Amino acid sequence: MRTRVTTLLRAAAAITLAASAMPLAAGAAAASQGGADDHKVTLCHRTNSENNPYVVITIDKAGVFKTGHDGHDEGGVYQPGDKANGVRWGDIIPAFDYYAGPQDETAGTLSHYDGLNNTAAGLDVLANGCQVPGEGEQPEPSGSLSGSCADDAFVVTGSTDEDGADDARFRLTIAGQAPVEVSGDFSKTVMADAGTVVTLEYQLGDGAWTSTGETITVTDCTPAQPTPATGAFGVACDTDGTANGVVTIGTLATHDNTGSYELRATPGVTTANVTTGQQIDVPLGAQLGLYFVPSSGPAYVVDTDTAPAACGGSTITPPPPATERGLSVVKSVSPTGPSTIGATLTYSLAVTTTGNAAQTNVTVSDVLPGYRTGTTSGTTTYVAGSATCSGSGTCTTAYDPTTHQVTWGLGTLPAGTSRSVSFRVTIDRPAASGGSIPGFDVVNVGVVGSDQVQPMTSNRVVTPVAAVEGVKMGRPGTSSGPGSVVQVLPHTGPGFRLGVTLGVAALLLLAGLGLVSLPVARRRS
Fold first, then answer.
1. Which of 71, 217, 221, 272 is disulfide-compatible with 262, CB 3.0–4.6 A?
2. Same structural domain, 346 and 403
3. Same domain, 98 and 150
């Protein structure tokens, strides 16, 4: 691995070569080395090093003959693996014109030297500062990337390898976002749309950012909704002649739900924990329902039927069905998935009255995220006037800033009625700790009740908010939105770039001339 000094000397030599040897096309090799009155020629002098097979030297044209460079025809242009395979390679010397002696120069008589290894491959090496293309003396940092969903967010994990470089930096580039610096073994949560490509890049010193070739594509981490449970049953007269019906339970499928099934007979009793193939006696004329009872949330019907009104000569007039009332509430948030500080969330609660009778004074309430007792959540701010109702009927709304509670009055709802209410909040910025804000969740549930049904809570809705790793001050006079990271950059106007360019070019040219003047004595092997 070359030191920084070696790199600078090579760069200086490359500038010297470029000044005297460009363009190095096969048809212009002689011109590239100057006219006949230019006594110098730049060539690639072979070494015995696998890592550095050539060095740049500029010598008098006569030296090609006097010091025997034209006799270094041990082989062709260096190829990777030559030394390991015992293959010798030779110098690379471009073609040039020269005066064989003072008399020829006085008479203007030119001689021509065809060059050594003066091929397209050789000229490519010469034009590349005598560095074989693909045989980098610079390190080639690398790394690895992988990704997976965790807590409804896409997480990129990986590692970096400096390959011996002491000034290598790495970053993840994400379309439409600021790059994220990484090092060593890392894990980063990426808030981006599915299909977004994340690339691992490296930089050596102040050089350009270069891709390592490692990429990963963001996938959708929105949790799938559970598939509803299914089931069926059949009902017929009991074959033993008794005056009752019998239910036979068919195939039950719980899919990705957890819970149990029960058969409800009206009038009659509820049979819990029923299984496929089970037979259950039921009253004649009974209204039958097969329900799935999840481990959390309300039960729901998967099949219904009616028992025969007469069996074995007996008949029954069923009494009117008992009054049943129930409420269900399902909460949702838009947009779904991860969010950011300052974003607006819209919460909706879908309320349905179940059973066979109306309910009065149906009331929905919701305490803003961050203020509900017993729930850990990032805080939010209510968007004034955002509480609304959908559907026809009574709708009164109120917001109490002391308790941070939104309330909707829906009045009387008949059985089987559905109404929806909604409101909006903005996500508050928490206090920073040590210059950064850790990630957090915004958690919300709602409550519904009536004069006939005790209050019940909805499902829990969680919106993750990514961590903010640091905030730097931007250039005076600039601004950015919430969660932005801005950085002060040095002035790089035309005058500044021209001065730096001329200064660096002069220093490198002096270094190149110094390198040329050094005696080159490399033992040939």
1. 272
2. yes
3. no
Between CA 54 and CA 353 the distance in angstroms is 86
Residue 37: predicted pLDDT: 59
326-345 pLDDT tens trace: 899 999 999 999 999 999 99
101 and 48 within one domain: yes
Q: How far is the C-alpha of 177 from the C-alpha of 484, rounded, in Å? A: 10
Q: pTM for this structure? A: 0.35
- pLDDT tens figures, 74-98: 688 888 767 777 788 888 899 988 8
Residue 327, classed as helix, strand or coil, is: strand
Which residue did the predictor score with more confidence, 2 or 503?
503
Q: Are residues 391 and 289 in the same domain?
A: no
Task: Tell me the three state secondary structure of residue 70.
Answer: helix
Is-cis flag, bond preceding 226, omega within 30? no
Give the span between the Cα atoms of 212 and 162, in whole angstroms: 11
Residues 51 and 102 in one domain: yes
Q: Is 361 left (phi over 0), alpha (psi -120 to 50) or beta?
A: left
Query: In this structure, which amino acid lies at residue 165?
Result: A
Task: Average the pLDDT over 235-263 and give the result.
Answer: 80
Q: What is the distance in angstroms between the CA of the first residue and the CA of the last residue of the chain? A: 22
Of the candidates 233, 225, 201, the residue with the CA atom closest to the CA atom of residue 214: 201
Beta bridge partners of 55: 45
Give the whole-angstrom CA distance, residue 219 versus residue 154.
Answer: 7
**What's the structural domain count of the chain?**
4
The per-residue b/e assignment along 108-130, b for 16 or more CB within 10 angstroms, e otherwise, is eeeeebebbbbeeebbebbbbbb
Amino acid identity for residue 43 in this structure: L
Q: Which domain holds residue 272?
A: 233-322
Helix (H) or strand (E) holding 499: helix 494-517
Range in 289-293, 325-329, 497-501 with the lowest mean pLDDT:
497-501
Task: Based on the fold, state whether residues 355 and 440 are members of the same structural domain.
Answer: yes
